[in-house]
Amino acid sequence: MNNIYNLTIEDLENYFLSIGEKKFKALQLYSWLYEKKVNSFDLMSDVKKAVIERLKTDFSIEHLKLVKVERDTEVNKYLFELYDGSFVESVLMRHDYGTSICVSSQVGCNMGCRFCESGRLKKVRDLNAYEMVLQILAVEEDIKEKITHVVIMGIGEPFDNYLNVTNFIKIINHPKGLAIGSRHITVSTSGIVPKILEFADFPYQVNLAVSLHAPNDKIRDMIMPINKAYKIKDIMDALKVYYKKTNRRITFEYIMLDGINDSDECAIELCKLLKGLNCYVNLIPYNETNNIQYKRSKNDRILKFYDIIKKNSVGVTIRREFGSNISAACGQLRSEKEEL
Ligand code: SAH
Ligand code: SF4
Q: According to the model, what pLDDT value does residue 339 have?
């Protein structure tokens, strides 16, 4: 049965029209789901009994099963069990500017990046929009606070699940949905070129981050199999189109891997590649995992790399590290039950 949290406002309007009700009922329902946050149709006191009965036969209102929460000072990690027995994780981070959640978009990931724990499990399936929406509702319920920022950077490649991810964005961005401002939503992709182009026409001012991680195809081929399908030049060309259409600054994520992509030459090559593009680089100190042999670049290497980029007038930041104590940092999330 379709879950009610899967519906965009348009879907819900069409549904009400199809059962002979007025369109505006959709807003009323959104308000129950996302403002008053009730978890039963019966609690929707201003909805007609007949409509409630109809909703009950047409939709499930079931939430995700929260199996485990790990808490650290600024980070919580949540493990959810889905209807089919699959598992995904979400991470909550507290910042001075608000609370952000890192949402998973798939069970496993097919991109197979060599450095990533989340990708060691092949994709089992895409998450439905409601399974992403409900990650947020569950975390908000746990912390009794509103989440202000969403990054789609958990397990999975969001652009390999484009329709569900864009529906998810529509639902959480809607003023009567979770009302998370589009500028507070970031999608991160490993570089699926046709979807970057499609995203350029997605009419929401959402941030785009691209996991580049290498300044040339030789290194990128080694660490990211997706680079066999879409070369760096293809990505850059697509991003130029994206920028022309959206005028939005692009973020490049760059993991610092010891001896792989962290030399001075790499930094210089990266600056040449990005010259003229409105973007900034987010350097990510690699989070080591037990199963993968890559090591994190030394701190002084990261700082030198940072300096070179800065001197070349490309915007750059070093990502603050979060959550490695509880394996909640980037690339450490998993879809496997052995977590339990
Ligand atoms: N699949 C998407 C989004 C999820 S991964 C993507 O690849 O962009 C989110 C970010 O974490 C990506 O930039 C990814 O490359 C990075 N990442 C993966 N493994 C990591 C690790 N072990 N340490 C630090 N960052 C990692
Ligand atoms: Fe998938 Fe992103 Fe991990 Fe690559 S880095 S395997 S695309 S989750």
A: 43
| Nearest CA-CA partner of 272 in 301, 253, 264, 304 | 264
pLDDT of 236 over the 50 cut:
yes
Return d(Cα 268, Cα 308) in angstroms, integer. 7
Element spanning 236, H or E: helix 232-246
* Residue 76: C-alpha distances to residues 94, 145, 172, 324, 336 (Å): 9, 13, 21, 11, 18
| 240 closest CA partner among 286, 282, 281, 275 | 275
Residue having the nearest C-alpha atom to atom 6 of ligand 2? 119
* Residue 161 Cβ contacting ligand 1 at under 6 Å: no
Does the pLDDT of residue 324 top 80, yes or no?
A: no
Give yes or no for a contact between 112 and 119, defined as CB atoms under 8 angstroms apart.
yes
Q: Which of 19-28, 59-68, 176-185, 321-330 has the lowest mean pLDDT?
A: 321-330
